[in-house]
Specification:
It contains 16 helices and ten strands. It is an alpha/beta fold. About 45% of the residues lie in helices and about 10% in strands. Strand 9 and strand 10 form a beta hairpin. The radius of gyration is 23 Å and the shape is globular. The strands form three sheets. It has a four-stranded mixed beta sheet. Strands 3-6-7-8 form a four-stranded parallel beta sheet, with no helix packed on it.
């Protein structure tokens, strides 16, 4: 099968940028204590003049002469904080105040329910977004290419959250970090995605999800990314439950009129669709042959599936068994939370590579967990 037009640009760019960023990861890993000292000092310098920095004596901590003294002063002056401890400061940012938790104001907020009764608004700074989220996404894509060289020979699908879900009182957006990262990828990388950018601006969840699956079914998907494997189970069921709707839209180059899609997004998304009777015929033939379709039928060349496989998501593993091509690599999504991204799984194992040059990390002794 021919490679997707322009895929060489993705491989060349990721091969270049990815190697450079991986050199930084490898360098940081050679002396983790030194790396963590440098990282912590960078955080302290950045936020020392904020209200939070002054309250917790960041300048005093910075004056430490040795790594050991630096870490000791940090632990003495910055005890572990719960979200409720930070909430009053976050509310002030939300209402327009600057230099409270950090210099300036957040570029966005991300929401997570976590263990609290009300949604948590997690402030994301422009600094952390550019230095961590943006770089980590490129490192991860490079690792996918390294272990599956044909992963970018055709399209990919990344099922992420809605870009804008709400607004703070001062007008700052609140949305999905993964959605923002996907939105801000370089155009040559975004070109590999089957779905149009505006799909993630659709308000109606059902319509948004339908568009993702409809556009993905039309392509020879090589990489599929979504943190929660329950989404993949939902995808499988949707393909079979709404098969005729999907195939009719693919055949005619349309989007079902039954979908609740804002007109501006319907127009931009529809402008990139064309009738594809050949693919529709292929899908109908697969349906007739197999009855119940699975991803291995309509995406036989899928190279990488990235989801969580641990914790409470493990219950979905049996439901995904035998659903994908045998040669596909099901990669653990890694240690990723709304609050931060400490690292990613970068190889064909299960261990998360921690990015010590991007995050300052403290560990609880194992004996204290029992």
């Amino acid at each position: 099968m021919a490679k997707m037009k322009g895929s060489w640009k993705v491989r060349l760019a990721l091969g270049t940028v990815g190697k450079i960023l991986m050199m930084g990861v490898n360098k940081a890993a050679k002396n983790c204590a030194l790396t963590e000292e440098q990282t912590l000092r960078g955080i302290l310098r950045y936020a020392k003049d904020s209200e939070w920095g002054k309250l917790h004596k960041f300048s005093y901590i910075l004056a430490a002469k040795t790594p050991e003294e630096l870490f000791k002063r940090w632990q003495e002056n910055v005890p572990p904080a719960e979200y409720e401890d930070l909430a009053p400061f976050i509310e002030r940012h939300k209402n327009g105040e600057s230099n409270v938790l950090f210099p300036g104001k957040p570029m966005m907020y991300a929401t997570t329910s976590g263990t609290t009764k009300t949604p948590k608004w997690i402030p994301i700074t422009n600094r952390y977004y550019k230095n961590v989220y943006s770089k980590i996404s490129k490192i991860w894509l490079y690792s996918a290419y390294k272990y599956r060289p044909s992963v970018f020979d055709d399209a990919g699908t990344s099922i992420v959250g809605k870009v804008i879900e709400d607004y703070a009182p001062d007008g700052t957006i609140c949305g999905s970090v993964s959605g923002i990262v996907r939105r801000d990828l370089p155009q040559f990388i975004k070109a590999i995605y089957a779905e149009h950018d505006d799909v993630y601006a659709i308000n109606d969840h059902r319509a948004r999800y339908y568009c993702i699956v409809r556009m993905g079914l039309e392509r020879d998907i090589r990489i599929l990314v979504t943190p929660n494997p329950s989404t993949i189970v939902e995808l499988q069921q949707s393909v079979n439950d709404m098969f005729e709707d999907y195939v009719t839209d693919i055949e005619k180059g349309t989007l079902s009129s039954n979908l609740n899609i804002e007109e501006e997004f319907r127009q931009t998304i529809s402008s990139g669709l064309k009738p594809n009777p050949q693919r529709a015929a292929e899908l109908r033939a697969l349906k007739e042959k197999y009855g119940i379709l699975q991803p291995k039928h309509y995406w036989p060349h899928l190279q990488v599936l990235s989801t969580w496989k641990c914790g409470n998501t493990y219950v979905y593993m049996d439901k995904l068994k035998d659903a994908f091509p045998e040669e596909m690599f099901h990669q653990e999504f890694g240690f990723f939370a709304t609050e931060c991204c400490p690292g990613k799984v970068l190889d064909e194992g299960k261990a998360t590579t921690i990015f010590a040059h991007m995050n300052y990390l403290e560990f609880v002794p194992e004996e204290e967990l029992h």
